[in-house]
Amino acid sequence: MISASTHSQLTLRLKRILDQLSEGLVERDTLARRVLLAALAGEHSLLIGPPGTAKSALARRLHLAFSDGRYFERLLTRFSVPEELFGPLSISALEQDRYERHVAGFLPDASIAFIDEVFKANSAILNALLTLLNEREFDNGAGRIRCPLVSVVGATNAVPDDEVAEAFFDRFLMRLPVEPVSAGQFAQLLASPADTGMAPFAERFSREDLAWLASVTAEVRVPDTVIALLGQLRSALDEMTVSVSDRRWVKVVYLLKTAAATEARADVSMWDLSLLPACLGADRESQHQIAAWLLDRLGIRMAISPPRLTRVVEAFEAQLAAELKANDLDYDADGRLRFSAGDLAHEVGDAKGGAGALRMTYQRKRRYGEVHIEARTAQVDALIARIARYAAEVQAQAADLAQYAAASLWMDPAFADAARNRLDGTVLAIAALRERAMTARAGFEALPRLADGQGSAPDPVVHDAWDD
Fold first, then answer.
1. Residue 158: which CATH number?
2. I want to staple 290 with a disulfide (CB 3.0 to 4.6 A). Which of 277, 307, 451, 468 is the partner?
3. Are 31 and 176 in contact (CB under 8 A)?
4. Could you list the residue range(s) of the whole structural domain that residue 145 is in?
5. What domain of life does the UniProt record list for this protein's source (predicted)?
6. How many structural domains comprise the chain?
7. 113-142 pLDDT, tens digit each
8. b/e string for 332-353 if b means 16 or more Cβ within 10 A?
């Protein structure tokens, strides 16, 4: 595990890098965090948005956070040729019947790269990029060379819908929609200085730092609870018709472990899953769907969910209403059923004398013995006790979220606020259900009682199965 001193140094360095990465860029702090985390995990990011939204400015800054490597940048068009990315052909190699390129100074030789308008290149270039981005290898002539690539940041206005583009799109673990600055921050945007380039960052990561981080990341554990949530999400994505490859799932888990390692945690937290929308959703709409799914479940087990508890409380309320309305057959002092014709004469007007027929009367409210009432109140008491435990659990999750968000380098503040609001709302909903359960208990306690006799124990109220 990371030592306290090493962790303190790592956290301080990352905070300084993040500050410089987003300095002067309005509403781009979360994007900066996502891009840097992807690079630390050895993954690639894709910025998707209209022109003029600081995609290029953010991407160009990333290389300033890393030392010991070359930076490569290229704007692609539909007329781009492989030489622009992979280097010119070697004339001397051609003279010896070898098809090789001079890769020095080009993408195969870079550690951090920015490729603007990535999908405007032809399919030949995109196919050549697939192996380089995923395996960090490049076919140069008859041989395959290892590439020092750490991370590529791509930028595009839109993602085309074709087979080659889909395969290339899958190589970017972080898909980050970029929107224009909001109206509330427009004045700050206008007051921002022009981006004229930045000096090298005071703090930078070397290859030794990245190797050390990778070794620490390998030791991070993924709890069963997190694995279970990922499995549930995978099933939910099938229903959302969101396709996620097995390769992407493996990379996502490594990213989560990297996030934990940079914060000196031995285990992945369920709150790390707030990173998932940008990794699993292909566009803004699907990312919002995934975020909503997570907000419904993070910190809230199914047994604690207000809809589930509501159904349980409603079962007791329905039982109480049924018992309050229940009637018994009315018997006279000799134990015979009471019959009456006169009471119904005004309601029956047939010509055959039906009004005179004897009828049983149902005017006696059912009464209940102590055994019945004690059984009902005991079952409600069990419900109230469980609700109290659920409320305490949700409050503990809210405290855990507050602690996590305060220390996290990567959590989106907007997601943290939404999760906090959801937990607070759940606590209020559980409190309201407790009051309803208390009212139901009082109702059972006030049921009409038998004058003598203990009565018999009723069957338990049927409701959703408990899940502690």
1. 3.40.50.300
2. 277
3. yes
4. 1-180+205-219
5. Bacteria
6. 1
7. 999 999 988 888 888 898 899 999 998 888
8. eeeeeeeeeeeeeeeeeeeeee
